[in-house]
Amino acid sequence: MTDTADLEALRSEVRSFLQAEAPTGWRDASRTQDDFVRTQRDWFGKLVRAGYAIPHWPAEYPGGGRSLAEQKVIYEELAGADCPRLLLSFVSTYHAFATLHECGNAEQKARYLPKILEGETWCQGFSEPGAGSDLAAIKTRAERKGDVYVINGQKVWSTMAQFADKCLLLARTSSDGVKQAGITYLLMDMKAPGVTVRPIHQIQGDEEFAEIFLDNVEIPVSERVGEEGKGWAVAQATLASERGLTLMELSYRMRGALGRVAKLIREHGHEDDRGVLRDFGTLVTQVDAVCAIADQFLDNRINGIERMGDASIVKNAYSRALRAYSALGLRLGGMDEQYMAPITFGDLNTGNWMADFMNSYAWTIAGGSEEVQRNIIAERMLDMPREPKGWVL
Amino acid sequence: MIELNELTDAAQKAFPAEKLSPSRDESWQLAAKMGWLMVRLPEEDGGLGFTREASTALHLEMGRVLSAMPLIPAQLGLQAIAASESFAERADWLERMAGGDYAPLPMLSARLTEGSDGSVSGTISGVFEADMAVAVVAQLPSGYALVPLDAPGVSLMERAIWDPSRRLFDVVLDGYAPRLMLTDAAGAKALHDRLSGEAQLALAADCIGAAGAALDMTIEYMKVRRQFDRPIALFQALKHRAADMKTRIVVAEALLWKRARDEQASVTELAAAKVLAAEAFRFVTEEMVQLHGGIGLTDEHPCHLFLKRALLNLQLCGNADLWNERVGRQALG
């Protein structure tokens, strides 16, 4: 429990730090992947030193031991200061941390967690060409040979794998029984022989994701998390690691970025166009409501009254608002937006409306597609029947 | 918070979900007995002194059962009288209203002109359940006034509406001489803004409550209605529509509570919450009719009650076009 006075003290402490240290002009300095990565590493280092990078870690780590209420304050301030979002280190500080903290052994924790604070980055080797929404259908094989597993297969949609040092890998050690059984969770060195990474060039010009090809990659058995064949349960810990802060932060950033639409309306002389004002007003209310639901979701978590499916509602509400935001910008920008303009890496509300619009699809597709979220809402919140299993074509 | 839950529980007990649009007059007596007519009135005036959240919770529950009683216009009328320090008969009227006398605020604008002798003529629209009213709180050219319905120059005209859960009237003034002034012309603006914001929140709550009930009813139907040897709730194409209905309601409700708790929220911000809630209600009821299929088109099934209430709510206290434009203009700075 943290009382209001403590939270406000933390807020002003974070705000003073951000006023002094938050990078300015980082959008212009993130026009190439290399510059983006450098900006990310610098900012992460600063936040680690200031004690704001890993508020959700336990107190034995510097900057850790913060309550969810405190984390919320930190993220509200980060969003308000319009500083870069921590993208490169996200999988490391959330997914890798949660996996190792909850399911890793003492030796694994001691070896990997401190290195994350020194800048070691992790990626996630979960999705495959044939296993997206249906993640348990993975086919990448791990064959036990003495003290190592030999890995063969292919991973895809691995966020920033091209810059990663380590990988959280799901591989199949057995094909017997239900598909969730027989999955094993491994920690892979991205520099191991047989690992090939190919960045995926996306439609908006970014390379946020990569494919990972695995050709007889050897992983020591000591790098297994949990028991052999019990990796599915470990993967749930990985996926549950993010506790709603990201969507709250993104919602507040989108609200801050409504000024970009307002600017467009003025530049194009639409200030008295009632149709445009209505559409803008509709968007403003939609974004305000997304902030309200993201806030409510976190408050419910803080108070321990979260319900099954709440997270799905927040995600679908955010991703649809992001689409509407970028679509309105694109419409108002008109033909201007069809001429190529520089893109900014690592930001969803850049004002390059074509790029922002295309980027918005990442949020209706990644992290559990909009359709999967609808299934969760219907089946787990509204208690509608699930489709029968074992359907065969 | 406990206070709020207790109020909600009491409302759900008094007005169970399975009984839609319960008798207006019985509901009214029950509401008066439970103190709901005075829920927002300060304790020193004999009210319960509850917060804006409390009345929002009540209006939400009354929306859920498509309440036929005019609790929203009644509370707004009461607030107008309570806010008037200059009104000589204030205490008398507050007492009468606690006892069940009904003096509503209209939910649509009036078209009135003032004669050279100060008398007023024209039409006050949007007066709910005026047949049970003793007076109406109206914004006259010279300020807010209480207009007794039995006064000379005042007549009632019922306007038949599609929504069967409520009745709507015009109050027609023909050379009416105002007597019971609540504000002067200068004071009218401040009172108008205050009442307008309250009205928006109350309507938003009505929409959210009713939309929730419409969704519950639709889900129940989808679970029992079988086609192609399975409940239609099994079809993913339909499940996804139900999920979107739920999402619209939950998101609009989050904004409603955020603004209800925000004492600084402007009229436009409160109206934005109403527009979002009313649009969610409309969306949910349109889907409700479609997902019920043919039965949804029959008069005997309650689908149409929800649809018609949603479409009327959209028009009350300013429609979506008007408020979306204002929200846009305000955000433009």
Detailed description of the structure:
The complex is a heterodimer of chains A (393) and B (333). Chain A is 47% helix and 14% strand. The mean pLDDT of chain A is 93. Chain A is α+β, with helices and mostly antiparallel strands and 393 residues long. Chain A has three domains: 4-86, no CATH class; 119-230, Butyryl-CoA Dehydrogenase, subunit A, domain 2, CATH 2.40.110; 245-381, Butyryl-CoA Dehydrogenase, subunit A, domain 3. In chain A, helix 8 packs parallel to helix 10 (310-333) and helix 10 runs antiparallel to helix 11. Chain A contains twelve helices and eight strands. In chain A, strand 6 and strand 7 (209-220) form a beta hairpin. Chain A has helices spanning 4-21, 33-50, 68-80, 90-103, 106-117, 231-239, 245-256, 258-267, 274-302, 310-333, 353-365, 370-381, and strands at 122-125, 141-145, 148-159, 166-172, 183-189, 195-200, 209-220, 224-225. In chain A, the strands form two sheets. Chain A has a four-stranded mixed sheet. Chain A has a four-stranded antiparallel sheet with strand order 2-3-7-6, with no helix packed on it. The model of chain B has no long low-confidence stretch (mean pLDDT 96). In chain B, strands 1-2-6-5 form a four-stranded antiparallel sheet, with no helix packed on it. In chain B, 53% of the residues lie in helices and 14% in strands. Chain B has three domains: 2-98, Butyryl-Coa Dehydrogenase, subunit A, domain 1 (Orthogonal Bundle), CATH 1.10.540; 110-185, Butyryl-CoA Dehydrogenase, subunit A, domain 2, CATH 2.40.110.10; 187-332, Butyryl-CoA Dehydrogenase, subunit A, domain 3, CATH 1.20.140. Chain B has ten helices and nine strands. Chain B has helices at residues 2-14, 24-33, 52-64, 71-83, 90-98, 185-224, 236-261, 267-292, 303-315, 320-332, and strands at 110-114, 120-128, 135-140, 143-148, 154-159, 168-176, 180-181, 226-227, 230-231. Chain B is globular, with a radius of gyration of 20 Å. Chain B is α+β, with helices and mostly antiparallel strands. The interface between A and B is large, with 39 and 38 residues.
